[in-house]
Amino acid sequence: MTSTLKGITLKGSAELVAEFFSFGINSILYQRGIYPPETFSRVTQYDMSLQLTTDTQLKNYLTNVVSQLKEWLFDCTVQKLVLVITCLETNEVLERWQFDIECECDKSAKEISAPREKSIKSIQDEIRSVIRQITATVTFLPLLESSCAFDLLVYTDKDLEVPDKWEESGPQIIDQSEENTMGTLEIDYN
Which residues form the HORMA domain (predicted)? Predict the structure, then answer.
């Protein structure tokens, strides 16, 4: 059985959304067993225990992706991020974790800071809720019985120049998949 997890919608500031992605991606990689559990360490963030990779190569890769993503979020040129899990042997797409992003910024006025409309506590509550949904979703997904790899797909504006070390790819859709809709994280842009 393969699954597409769809419908986590993120609205908000580039910094907070990028930080969420870092923790969310680490959480999925840990909980789905893409990397061994001993390559993660427990940290406390958003008043909850989360796992972050200690694998140097993975850490560098995620730092580079999240850093670029933050730029694109700030420029309001990204629409979604998809974490794709594939079977190493067959290259079959097993899971697609899709995070839809709604940028609510005026591209011509991004230098001007709007007043914050939500408290940090409220934002952290929403982030906690989405990460808990990721954790809960893992409980009903089938075990990944083969060695797996992952890829991150970032959907941007069509005219955006792709960085040198990045490459374009197809959507890596799952045929006859089941979709599970999760919640929304709204962080006011500032």
Answer: 11-190
Listed by start position, the domains of the chain span 3-186
Answer whether residue 130 shows pLDDT above 70.
yes
**Superfamily of domain covering 3-186:** HORMA domain (3.30.900.10)
Query: What pTM was computed for the model?
Result: 0.82
| DSSP for 71-113, written as a single string | HHHHTT-EEEEEEEEEETTT--EEEEEEEEEE----GGGTTSP
Burial class, 135, CB count within 10 angstroms (exposed 0-12 / middle 13-18 / buried 19+): middle
Residues ≥6 apart with Cβ < 8 Å to 19: none
> Do residues 189 and 12 touch, judged by C-beta distance below 8 A?
yes
Using CA atoms in the order 156, 20, 180, 125, what is the torsion angle rounded to 10 degrees?
A: -140
Length of the chain, please? 190
